[in-house]
Specification:
- The chain is 51% helix and 8% strand.
- The chain is α/β, with parallel strands linked by helices.
- The chain has one domain (48-393, 428-439): TIM Barrel (Alpha-Beta Barrel), CATH 3.20.20.
- Strands 4, 5, 6, 7, 8 and 9 form a six-stranded mixed beta sheet that branches. It has a three-stranded parallel beta sheet with strand order 1-2-3.
- Strand 5, helix 14 and strand 6 form a beta-alpha-beta unit.
- Helix 2 (33-46) packs parallel to helix 19, helix 4 crosses helix 6 and helix 7 crosses helix 18.
- The protein is globular and about 60 Å long.
- The termini are far apart.
Length: 441
């Protein structure tokens, strides 16, 4: 502290300098970038994944489980890509049996053209990781490999190769086929966990009311107090039956909350109260533009920029609910990350659907890490075919590793003592821990 005497001239005061005591500086331990890179690679390859959102099913669900080379090739990403370069009309393509569709896609995208798209590369990554010779381009030999495995054997193999311990399914209690499976035998594989999907319940009222009445629920078109009570009963019963980890809906880019639609009414008076009472999150996946080209069927959906203020109001008006939120448009990602900083009851997750490409995953993950630190879930696979969790997690791990290496190198450059333990702890949060915390299991 400087003390000035009133008797001293101002010029003398200005000449005084504060000389702090000399302190012996301890040498800083700065981890090398090579160490950090090795630690990140080791951690991300060894930590097993909790895959928060998929469209997968276990073998006990019969025909709902999709696996093998023909299903990989007939994935809707590849269907859309093929139809851009195909001489066939959509009607001609859909009229072909599944094996013939797969052969057409293989020829158009893998034989006649270089398979450089992410969806094509994904197929090749799966085949390579299965130990198959991709240079042969022999589709029939690949089919022989899959025919040699039972669904159960293949499921075990895929989970091991992908290093995934849990996948969360998408389960629709209003789908007649799936409903029957749950009623008769349910799920017998603990690696597959349920999420109760309620798109039709929220977005197809009053038509869905008739379906509920057919199942014994007293639901009237006017959404009376009795209807709300019955919708809550439906939700409670199916959360119990499925042991659902969360309740989920996919929403259009035009979605607004709150408004005067049945969706807001059902959400506020049934879905959110039940989720709150049960202590499970409500997951909203926002930004789809449905069926811009109906001829492509499942491949005909697109994307639109959504209104982030609806997400803000959803979280702010329901502080006792937990929300899992992802958005489809690249243009929404910065707003979404900033919103997550303000809403402690919101967990931002994944690079969904059209964002599941390496260049976008890197950009989005880097931004989220800079804004949110470790409090987000970088990725989910959104896999529809079991085999896809191999390539989606191989490719995503590589991109997440790149970002983590840069960020930990930046941290080390400040003098912070980055350790292998800290790197592994961060990897565990990103790949599994944040899911477990949010889902409470």
């Amino acid at each position: 502290m400087l003390v000035f005497s009133r008797a001293e001239p101002l010029t003398v005061c200005r000449q005084r300098r504060y000389n702090p005591p000399l302190v012996e500086m301890q040498p800083m331990t700065i981890s090398s970038t090579a160490d950090i890179a090795r630690w990140v690679d080791d951690a991300l390859s060894s930590v097993s994944v909790y895959d928060l959102h998929t469209h997968l099913y276990p073998p006990s669900f019969g025909g709902l489980m999709l696996w093998g080379i023909d299903e990989l090739l007939c994935y809707h990403y590849l269907v859309a890509e093929t139809m851009r370069v195909s001489e066939l009309s959509c009607e001609q393509f859909w009229a072909m049996p599944r094996p013939q569709q797969a052969e057409h896609i293989w020829r158009k995208l893998f034989v006649e053209r270089a398979p450089v798209s992410e969806a094509c590369r994904g197929v090749l990554t799966v085949l390579r990781r299965l130990g198959l010779d991709t240079s042969s381009k022999n589709l029939e030999s690949f089919r022989e490999f899959f025919r040699a495995h039972s669904p159960q054997q293949y499921t075990d193999l895929v989970f091991r190769l992908a290093n995934v311990h849990t996948v969360v399914m998408t389960n629709d209690a209003l789908d007649p086929v799936e409903r029957e499976i749950w009623l008769k035998r349910g799920n017998d594989d603990e690696r597959f966990r349920a999420a109760l999907r309620i798109d039709r319940l929220l977005l197809d009222w009053p038509a869905v009311g008739q379906t509920l009445r057919g199942y014994g629920y007293q639901a009237s078109p006017d959404l009376s107090a009795t209807s709300m009570r019955e919708i809550r009963r439906f939700l409670d019963e199916w959360i119990d039956r499925m042991d659902a980890l969360y309740v989920a809906v996919s929403l259009s880019w035009t979605w607004r909350y709150p408004d005067d639609s049945p969706a807001t009414l059902i959400l506020d008076q049934a879905v959110l109260p039940v989720a709150r009472e049960r202590g499970i999150p409500f997951a909203a996946m926002v930004g789809v533009s449905r069926q811009v080209n109906p001829a492509l069927r499942l491949a005909g959906d697109s994307v639109g920029r959504a209104d982030i203020t609806s997400v803000e109001r959803l979280c702010a008006r329901n502080p006792d609910n937990t929300f899992l939120i992802t958005m489809l448009s690249r243009e929404n990602q910065h707003e979404l990350a900033v919103t997550a900083r303000k809403m402690r009851n919101m967990m931002l997750f994944g690079c969904w659907w059209f964002l599941n490409n390496p260049s976008l995953i890197e950009e989005i993950t880097r931004m989220r890490m800079e804004l949110l630190g470790t409090s987000f879930i970088p990725q989910h696979s959104d896999a529809r075919v079991l085999d896809q969790i191999i390539y989606k997690w191989d490719h995503s791990r590589a991109v997440i590793a790149k970002v983590m290496k840069d960020k930990f190198a930046d941290l080390a450059a400040t003098g912070w003592p980055v350790s292998q333990d800290e790197v592994r702890r961060t990897a565990e949060l990103y790949l599994s821990g944040n899911c477990r915390t949010c889902l409470k299991r």
